[in-house]
Write a structure and sequence with these properties.
α2 links the parallel β2 and β3 (62-65). The protein is an alpha/beta fold. Helix content is 41%, strand content 20%. α5 (139-153) crosses α6 (157-167).
Length: 274
């Protein structure tokens, strides 16, 4: 019976995303069965006609005008509050869901009662897996992730094999990427949705840490694959690096306040904007 099937609210935040959103919505609209789903797009004051394009091409998609560039967390929260469902799926506009990818992700979370959040195996446009999981943010955690990512992007063969092997193993992790994550709505509401102090970046790690503090688990579902054209939107924004550093500082202020003075000093010495 349809009433017994868990419902899904898909929320997508756009900012000048007309070039990416077609592939994303084409892969979602009409392709979520057996889960009844709504799709809500919150547009952060795009100037490229993103909102009008969506309204014209996909009339079943609800488009909300944010009234300005509200940032990722706040815009997602608007979309979440405007929907009702058992599960919330957050997706970036530069993601594409192959057939069965969303269903596998939702089923993976549904079957694992201890978990509040689940993320898929993200693949780039060359079919290589992303490092879409990792240790929680801390001085040691960031160093570990940075070294691994650097060696991986330099295509060090042993590291590439290691990452590929890890990417094929479903397991509990510390966090999953906000580019695509499904969340149980009661857990999401229990932590107060996404923390809006994070304008862009780090909000996904923070959300997962908030869940863990409630003794809820984070699940990586390797059998669910989603394509991700990573970084296209960020590449168009000249303030990307500054926003990344502000979010980093906000995260440390919230979770590791004793490290904030040293972090600020490090960023100043490196000449990085904050």
């Amino acid at each position: 019976m349809a009433d017994n099937r868990p419902s899904l609210a898909i929320v997508i935040v756009t900012f000048n995303s007309r070039g990416e959103i077609q592939g994303c919505l084409d892969s979602l609209v009409g392709h979520t069965e057996p889960f009844p789903a709504t799709i809500t797009v919150v547009d952060n004051a795009s100037t490229d006609g993103t909102a009008a394009f969506i309204r014209e091409r996909w009339p079943s998609v609800k488009v909300i005008d944010g009234g300005g560039n509200l940032g990722f967390s706040r815009a997602n929260n608007i979309g979440i509050r405007a929907s009702k469902s058992d599960y919330v799926l957050l997706m970036n506009p530069d993601t594409v869901a192959p057939p069965g990818g969303i269903q596998t992700l939702v089923r993976g979370l549904a079957a694992y009662g201890a978990a509040a959040v689940a993320g898929p195996r993200l693949l780039n446009d060359r079919n290589f897996p992303e490092l879409s999981w990792g240790p929680t943010i801390s001085p040691l955690g960031e160093l570990t992730q940075k070294v691994l990512a650097t060696l991986y992007h330099r295509k060090v063969r042993r590291v590439v094999r290691y990452v590929d092997r890890l990417s094929r193993q479903s397991r509990e992790v510390a966090w999953v990427s906000g580019a695509c994550m499904v969340i149980r709505r009661p857990d999401l509401e229990a932590v107060g949705l996404l923390d809006e102090r994070f304008f862009l970046y780090t909000e996904d790690v923070d959300l997962c840490v908030s869940m863990a503090k409630r003794d809820r688990r984070i699940l990586y579902v390797a059998s669910a694959e989603i394509m991700h054209a990573r970084g296209r939107s960020a590449a168009r924004n000249p303030d990307t690096e500054q926003m990344r550093r502000k979010s980093q500082i906000a995260y440390y202020e919230k979770h590791h306040p004793a490290w904030v003075p040293l972090l600020r000093l490090y960023l100043k010495l490196k000449g990085r904007p904050t």
